C-alpha cells in the first residue's frame, strides 16, 4: 500500500498506543490473513456509521460493524491472548466476531493507515471491500460532534454525561470539527486514489432517503444479491434535536470574524491533476486544523 506523507501527519491516539505495545507497525513475515472477505466501513465521527452498520447487519449477511481497531479493543484482546502484533490480532478477529464468511468492521482513516503499515491491507487484496460513508451537511455533522465531545453521547445507546442545559455553544470548536471532517474525507479519497481502490460511496442523506441503498451497492460489489435491510430493527435513532437546530441558527447568524485568523492558502487549488489538487487541499486543511488545535480545540482521532 502507498501511504502519502500527508496521511502520516494525522494525529492518531490508536497508533500511538499500539506502537507503544507492539513496536513499529510493520508486516509480519509469512503472515497470511484469515480466509474470509472483509468490508471496511470507512467513517468520520457522527456521519451515521453506527446506523449504517446496524442496517447492514439486519440483512443477515454481516455482523454489526464495530470499531474493532480502536487501540483499547486491540490491546484488551492482545493482553488476554498474548498477541504481539496487529496481524496476530487480525488473525483472531474471526473468533471474536460472529460471522458467516465475511466480517464488517469500521475504520477511520488513521486506522486504515495502521492496517496498511502492518501489511494487512496488502494481504487482503481481492478480499476487501471499502465502503465510504460521508455526510453532505458538514455543518450539521460538526455541530453533532461538538455536542458529543461535551456530553459524551456518541450514539443513543449511550447516556449523556451532562444535561442539555449544560451544553455550551462553541463556534471555534465547530470550525475545528468542520476542518477535521473535510480533512479526513479528503484523506480517504487520497488513500483510495494512490492505491487504485474504488470504494463504494454512500452519503448519510441518501441513506436516510433510501435505507436499502447501501445494502444494494455493497451487495453488487461483493456478489451478494437480494440483500434487504430491516430499518425497523435498528436499535438506535437520530440524536438531532432542538439544541442542534438552535446552534445551527446561532452559527449561521453569527460573525465569521473567527475565520480571519486561519492560515490562508499559499497557492491556488486549481489543478488538472485530481490527486495533486487533493494533496494541496489536505495541506491547507491541515494548517487550519493545526491552528484551531493550537487555539484550544480538540481534533485528534480517538
What is the radius of gyration?
20 Å
Helix-strand pattern: HEHHHEHHEHHEHHHH
Mean pLDDT: 87
The counted number of beta strands is 4
- Order of strands across the widest beta sheet? 2-1-3-4
Stated plainly, the CATH topology is called Rossmann fold
Kindly name the structural category. alpha/beta
Please report which band the strand proportion falls in: under 5%, 5-15%, 15-25%, 25-35%, 35-45% or over 45%.
Answer: 5-15%
Largest sheet geometry: 4 strands, parallel
Task: Describe what you observe in this structure.
The protein has helices at 13-22, 49-57, 71-81, 86-96, 109-117, 120-123, 138-151, 171-194, 204-209, 213-222, 242-253, 274-294, and strands at residues 37-42, 102-107, 128-134, 200-203. It has 302 residues and is α/β, with parallel strands linked by helices. The chain has a single domain, classed as P-loop containing nucleotide triphosphate hydrolases (Rossmann fold, 3-Layer(aba) Sandwich). It has a 4-stranded parallel beta sheet with strand order 2-1-3-4. α1 packs parallel to α3 and α7 packs across α8 (171-194). It is globular. Residues 256-270 and 295-302 have low confidence and may be disordered.
